[in-house]
Design brief:
With about 500 residues, the protein is of the alpha/beta class. Strands 1, 2, 3, 4, 5 and 6 form a six-stranded parallel beta sheet that branches. A five-stranded mixed beta sheet has the order 9-10-11-12-13. Strands 7-8 form a two-stranded antiparallel ribbon. The chain is globular and about 75 Å long. The protein has helices at about 5-20, 35-45, 65-85, 100-110, 110-120, 120-140, 160-170, 185-190, 210-225, 230-240, 245-260, 265-275, 280-295, 300-315, 320-325, 330-340, 360-370, 375, 380-395, 395-415, 455-470, 490-495, and strands at about 25-30, 55, 60, 145-150, 175-180, 205, 345-350, 350-355, 420-425, 430-440, 440-450, 475-480, 500. The chain is built from 22 helices and 13 strands. Helices cover about 55% and strands about 15% of the residues. The chain folds into three domains: about 5-205, 3-Layer(aba) Sandwich (Rossmann fold), CATH 3.40.50; about 305-370, Arc Repressor Mutant, subunit A (Orthogonal Bundle); about 400-500, Trna Endonuclease, Chain: A, domain 1 (3-Layer(aba) Sandwich), CATH 3.40.1350.10.
Length: about 500
């Protein structure tokens, strides 16, 4: 079930509209595994497949073994979409070999190109593939937005792959590319480092968890489909446990549906532990895959695994604390940490190290301690695990932001002369990072502490939340604090709505 992602859909629609106007925009969608990147592409493709002049080929690069296999698979997807538009082919099953592609090519009057491409190998084939794409689109009268899923796997094709691709696709006028990647550090390297061929060639779009309301909509729809009534405490618990991760939400709801005839807060907790810590759970399987697949890219022996086990229990340890525990020199451990950071299992904030996904830390600690299905049956064990999960692990995901909120609370109180505190409405639906009242004026603050500029949608959402709150009819002053500056669009909507923008030094941003 697909929910929301309105901003991302709007970006993809804009990419299509611009291509029709001879303006190309390439997009790189970056986000953790199972966060919904593939679903976003396929949902967009499904909703726009009747476009008369556009085709949307899709290829998962992870499933391709080498350059020659990539060339065949890419060309197969490309020709299939062209053939389907012309009603010449209905299924990709009929396109299993080069001979099959030649038959379709003849119907499309492209057999000369296919015959030559079939003869080429390795990087020559890759170059001709992208060169011929423009000619084919010119002959057939179509435009193309190519979806390349798990794009980071092109790295396995050798250093020249990106150079060859860039040298040709940058000149294309009838094609745009939307790529996705779950290896965040590697995707940022490909598209952000100035030495890389695709530096500044793709607009980066970060896909995160669903917002609270969208999470509740998704969970409620899944449960009510099975005639399960849900109350506010149940949906709030579900959101707290999953933190809006769509795959976790779907897996948890399925477990509840399979195990129970009705749903409440306690059953949601029990089902979540089953999904997370029992090998029969889908969340367990995904966490196990992420951990082992990521670690395989860096594994240099038991020491790396030991570091991760230590951090799973002690989120936020510094390099010195990790080195002390391992009885190793800090310089040596620093090298290990650099490698582990590239796996995307960990992030670093200042001198402190954390798991990118706190649930992975919880899973790792408890599965390696030997929590099994028999232990999960014990009420006391389940109660202790839920307490540990909610009070220790899931809090870490917002701990950095909360620390900054407290830091800003003190500074903002001094700057504006008002007592501030976090605000949550009685029904739990409205939250503000900081709020205070002085002379019947309510000061409301939104704190964005992340490594990308605060955008138009962030400010718009803040304004919408204020409008929905009990403060909408009162005299308010609105502020947004951002670690990483603001986009031009964010500054415009803030100015239009009299929102005060503050940088990390609390200076006003114009």
């Amino acid at each position: 079930m697909f929910v929301n992602r309105l901003k991302e859909f709007r970006t993809l629609r804009l990419t299509a509209e611009l291509l029709k106007k001879n303006e190309r925009t390439n997009i790189a969608i970056i986000g953790n595994r199972r966060i919904g990147k593939t679903e976003l592409l396929l949902e967009f493709k499904e909703k726009h497949h009747q476009e008369k002049t556009l085709i949307f080929p899709y290829l998962n690069v992870q499933r391709v073994g080498d350059v020659d296999s990539f060339v065949f698979s890419y060309y197969r997807e490309f020709l299939f979409e062209l053939g389907r538009k012309r009603k010449l082919v209905a299924s990709k099953i009929t396109l299993a070999t080069w001979d099959d592609l030649l038959i379709l090519s003849a119907k499309l009057h492209l057999d000369d190109i296919t015959e030559k491409l079939k003869r080429e190998e390795d990087m020559k084939a890759l170059a001709f593939l992208f060169e011929s794409q423009e000619e084919i689109l010119k002959r057939t009268g179509f435009l193309c937005i190519f979806f390349l899923d798990e794009f980071q796997y092109v790295q396995q094709f050798g250093d020249r792959f990106l150079e060859v691709m860039r040298s040709i696709v940058e000149k294309q006028k009838k094609s745009a590319y939307v790529v996705t990647g779950s290896s965040i550090s590697l995707m940022e390297t490909i598209f952000s480092q100035h030495r890389e061929p695709f530096f500044a060639q793709f607009r980066r779009l970060y896909l995160g968890p669903l917002q609270k309301q969208d999470s509740i909509v998704l969970a409620t729809a899944l449960l009510k489909k099975q005639r399960m009534d849900v109350d506010v405490s149940t949906t709030n618990e579900l959101f707290q446990l999953t933190h809006g991760h769509p795959f976790y939400i779907v897996s948890l709801c399925r477990r509840v549906i399979e195990d129970f005839d009705e749903v409440n807060q306690e059953k949601v907790r029990y089902a979540f532990l089953e999904e997370t810590l029992s090998p029969k759970g889908d969340i367990y399987l995904v966490l196990d895959y992420i951990f082992n697949e990521s670690l395989s890219r860096a594994y240099k022996g038991e020491l790396h695994r030991q570091i991760l086990l230590n951090l799973a229990e002690h989120q936020g340890w510094t390099l010195s604390e990790i080195a002390r525990n391992l009885k190793r020199p800090s310089g040596e451990v620093s090298n290990y940490m650099k490698v582990l950071l590239k796996t995307d299992l960990l992030i670093r904030d200042g001198n402190n190290y954390y798991f990118r996904d706190p649930l992975l830390a919880f899973w790792l600690k408890n599965t390696y301690l030997g929590i099994d299905d028999t232990e999960l049956e014990k009420e006391s064990v389940r109660r202790d695990l839920i307490t540990e999960l909610t009070e220790k692990y899931l809090k870490v995901s917002s701990e950095l932001g909360k620390a900054k909120e407290y830091e800003f609370k003190i500074l903002l109180e001094e700057k504006f002369g008002v007592q501030l505190k976090r605000y949550v409405s009685s029904d739990g639906q409205i939250e503000f990072d900081l709020l205070g009242e002085n002379d019947s004026v309510y000061h409301i603050f939104e704190v964005k502490w992340r490594n990308k500029p605060t955008g138009h949608s962030d400010v718009k959402k803040f304004l919408t939340t204020v409008k929905k709150s009990k403060f909408s009819g009162k005299t308010v002053k609105l502020y947004v604090v951002s670690k990483s500056d603001f986009t031009i669009q964010a500054k415009k909507i803030a100015k239009d709505n009299q929102v005060i923008l503050l940088n990390k030094k609390l200076a006003t941003v114009r």
